[in-house]
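Build the 3D complex.
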Amino acid sequence: AQSVTQPDIHITVSEGASLELRCNYSYGATPYLFWYVQSPGQGLQLLLKYFSGDTLVQGIKGFEAEFKRSQSSFNLRKPSVHWSDAAEYFCAVAPMDSSYKLIFGSGTRLLVRP
Amino acid sequence: EAGVAQSPRYKIIEKRQSVAFWCNPISGHATLYWYQQILGQGPKLLIQFQNNGVVDDSQLPKDRFSAERLKGVDSTLKIQPAKLEDSAVYLCASSFPQGGWNTGELFFGEGSRLTVL
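Done.
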């Protein structure tokens, strides 16, 4: 069955520390991969996406993600977290067909300590 | 450019009552999605429209949920009768895939929060 797993429900980091949020997927073939962020009371915003090519993808707000085919993973990273990064982060996948369907993981809530 | 508009932002109803949510996508976007986001979970796709046709409604509880997009622009999601477990945020999103996902980003509205008592 197709699925997206975000194993960490909550993560707490200190401001200025590095961050890595995990995402694993289970699909018949490599899907398109996305990370979205949801701030309190706001809609989801796209951080970055991977379709093909370079496996290290740069996004907005200083985020990057690395696609590892052998591990079926697409982990999100940031070298130095800011207090404004506190939010919920969702990994999502879309099959490489014409359905344009986006399937989300359960999310990881990021808390930032001052 | 105006974003995806949703209304109402908040709605509180008693169980067995009905409720309707409205979504106006970004102008020119052919694909419209309704997602249900229960507290502590990721968004779950309820229904996907391409213009005014349904692409996927496999996870829509059709005994109580209905959705339409009559003119291929705005859309309405209705729940009748509501159950306690329908308490969630209902997110609308739109996109305009130009031959593929290369530019097919989904743009989300702020959501409509439903509380069923």
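The two ends of chain A are 41 Å apart (CA to CA).
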